[in-house]
C-alpha cells in the first residue's frame, strides 16, 4: 500500500507541476499567471462597450483599454466562465433598446450586455437573435450604414464572411480568401482591422480589399508596450498645451483639429481623441492647414491661397476640379487665419487678421455680404455650434452667442481656458 500511495503522490505532484508552468519562475507572485498582451497574443475578441472603453478578450481574461494588466473577464461580464468566440457593439440607432449593446458569442450561444449587465432572457441560441448566422464563430464586427450598404454586422467563420442586415434580418455570405484568418475584428474610427496572431490587417468592409503595407504589429498601434512605438494612437493632449491651426465640426458632430502635419479627431468623448497624419484622410494636403470649415456634407480646407473641397463620407473624396484659388472659390484674397459655418446656415465666416468676412455659399459666384472689424487679432482657429462661437488664441478662447454679437463687439471679452469638456484634452 505504501508504494502505491507514494507512486500516486508523485504522479499527482508531477501533474500539478505540468498544469502550472507560469508559476515556476515566480512562486508566490499572484500576477505571474496573467497573460501579457505585450508578449504577443492572438485575441479571441475585441469590442468597445457603451462607454467607449475597448475590451480585448483572451481565454478567461480581458484587458480594458489600450494599457494596463489583464483581469478576469467575469469582473466585467460576470456570467462568463471562460473564453468567448466573438464580440461586437451593436450599431442600431433606430432601435435604442438595442443600440450600443455588447454581444458576446460562445459556441452556439449569444449574450447581450448593456452597462455590463446581462439582458433578461440571455444567453440565447444565436439563431434566435441572428437567424442564418453560423455557430462557433471566429469574429464579428458592426458595420454602420454608409460604411456598409445598410446597418449590418459582419460575422467571420473561416474564409467566409456572413453579412447580417439588422433591419431585414437576412444574411449574405461572401468569401474573402485573401484576408488572413481573423480571430477578432475591430472597427475603430470607421476603419476595420482583422487581428491574426499579434498582427492586424486593415480591410474594406464591403469588398474585403486590403490596401497598404500589411500585416502590422498590433503592439505598435492598439496597446502601449515597452520598446514598441505607436501609430495612430489615443492622444493625451494637455489642455494647457492646446494650440491648433484650424478646427471644425461636421454634420455628424465629429470634431477635427489640425496642427502642423497632423490632425486629431474627436467622435465622441467616450471614444477619445486620436491623432493621425493629415495625408491619411486628405492625401493632397501635404503641408498642413491654415483654416477649415464644414458645409453641406463637405469639408473646405484652406492652405495658402488654395481651397480644397472634399465630400464627406466613410472616406473623404476630393471634388473634381479642386483645389481652386481663394479668389476663384470664395472671392477673397490674402492669408486666412480661421473660418467657420454655423449649423443650418449657408454663410462662411472668414477671419483674416482683425477682420471678418461673411460669404454667401449658396451664391454662384460667391457673394461677400459683410466685411467687419474684430476687437482682437492673432486668432488661431474658430468653430461654431448651436450654443455659439468659440474663437481660439492658444489655450484660451472667447465665446460669443452668435456671429452678430461677435461683429458688434468692440472690446474683447474675458478669455476662458480650454477644457476637456470642449475638445477632449486632458485638464
TrEMBL record:
Keywords: Disulfide bond, Glycoprotein, Heme, Iron, Metal-binding, Repeat, Secreted, Signal, Transport. Transmembrane segments: none annotated. One of its GO terms (molecular function) is heme transmembrane transporter activity. Coiled coil: none annotated. InterPro entries: Heme_transport/Cell_adhesion (IPR051298), Hemopexin (IPR016358), Hemopexin-like_dom (IPR000585), Hemopexin-like_dom_sf (IPR036375), Hemopexin-like_repeat (IPR018487). SUPFAM superfamilies: Hemopexin-like domain (SSF50923). Its main location: secreted. It is found in: Secreted. Hemopexin repeats lie at residues 40-80, 81-133, 134-178, 179-225, 241-285, 286-333. GO terms for cellular component: extracellular space. SMART domains: HX. GO terms for biological process: intracellular iron ion homeostasis. Residues 1-19 form the signal peptide. Heme binds at residues 230, 274. Disulfide bonds join 38-225, 143-148, 182-194, 342-384. Belongs to the hemopexin family. Binds heme and transports it to the liver for breakdown and iron recovery, after which the free hemopexin returns to the circulation. This is Hemopexin. It comes from Oryzias sinensis (Chinese medaka).
Amino acid at each position: 500500500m505504501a508504494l502505491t500511495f507514494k507512486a500516486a503522490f508523485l504522479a499527482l505532484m508531477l501533474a500539478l507541476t505540468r498544469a502550472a508552468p507560469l508559476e515556476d519562475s515566480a512562486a508566490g507572485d499572484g500576477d505571474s499567471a496573467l497573460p501579457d498582451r505585450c508578449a504577443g497574443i492572438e485575441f479571441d475578441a475585441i469590442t468597445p462597450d457603451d462607454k467607449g472603453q475597448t475590451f480585448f478578450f483572451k481565454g478567461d481574461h480581458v484587458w480594458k483599454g489600450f494599457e494596463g494588466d489583464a483581469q478576469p473577464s467575469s469582473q466585467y461580464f460576470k456570467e462568463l466562465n471562460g473564453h468567448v468566440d466573438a464580440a461586437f457593439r451593436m450599431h442600431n440607432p433606430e432601435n435604442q433598446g438595442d443600440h450600443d449593446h455588447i454581444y458576446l458569442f460562445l459556441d452556439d450561444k449569444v449574450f447581450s450586455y448593456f452597462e455590463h449587465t446581462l439582458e433578461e432572457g440571455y444567453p440565447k441560441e444565436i439563431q434566435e437573435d441572428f437567424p442564418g448566422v453560423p455557430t462557433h464563430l471566429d469574429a464579428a464586427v458592426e458595420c454602420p450604414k454608409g460604411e456598409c450598404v445598410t446597418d449590418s454586422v459582419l460575422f467571420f467563420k473561416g474564409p467566409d464572411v456572413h453579412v447580417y442586415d439588422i433591419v431585414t434580418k437576412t444574411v449574405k455570405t461572401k468569401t474573402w480568401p485573401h484576408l488572413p484568418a481573423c480571430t477578432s475584428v475591430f472597427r475603430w474610427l470607421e476603419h476595420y482591422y482583422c487581428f491574426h496572431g499579434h498582427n492586424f490587417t486593415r480591410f474594406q468592409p464591403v469588398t474585403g480589399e486590403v490596401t497598404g503595407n500589411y500585416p502590422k504589429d498590433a503592439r505598435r498601434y492598439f496597446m502601449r508596450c515597452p520598446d514598441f512605438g505607436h501609430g495612430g494612437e489615443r492622444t493625451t493632449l494637455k489642455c494647457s498645451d492646446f494650440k491648433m491651426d484650424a478646427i471644425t465640426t461636421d454634420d455628424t458632430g465629429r470634431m477635427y483639429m489640425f496642427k502642423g502635419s497632423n490632425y486629431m479627431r474627436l467622435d465622441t468623448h467616450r471614444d477619445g481623441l486620436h491623432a493621425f497624419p493629415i495625408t491619411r484622410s486628405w492625401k493632397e494636403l501635404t503641408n498642413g492647414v491654415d483654416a477649415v470649415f464644414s458645409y453641406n456634407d463637405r469639408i473646405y480646407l484652406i492652405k495658402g491661397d488654395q481651397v480644397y473641397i472634399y465630400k464627406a463620407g466613410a472616406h473623404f473624396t476630393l471634388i473634381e476640379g479642386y483645389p481652386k484659388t481663394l479668389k476663384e472659390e470664395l472671392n477673397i484674397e490674402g492669408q486666412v487665419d480661421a473660418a467657420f459655418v454655423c449649423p443650418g446656415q449657408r454663410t462662411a465666416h472668414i477671419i483674416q487678421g482683425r477682420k471678418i468676412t461673411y460669404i454667401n455659399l449658396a451664391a454662384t459666384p460667391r457673394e461677400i455680404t459683410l466685411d467687419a472689424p474684430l476687437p482682437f487679432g492673432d486668432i488661431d482657429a474658430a468653430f461654431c455650434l448651436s450654443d455659439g462661437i468659440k474663437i481660439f488664441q492658444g489655450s484660451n478662447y472667447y465665446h460669443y452667442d452668435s456671429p452678430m454679437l461677435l461683429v458688434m463687439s468692440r472690446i474683447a471679452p474675458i478669455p476662458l481656458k480650454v477644457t476637456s469638456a470642449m475638445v477632449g484634452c486632458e485638464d
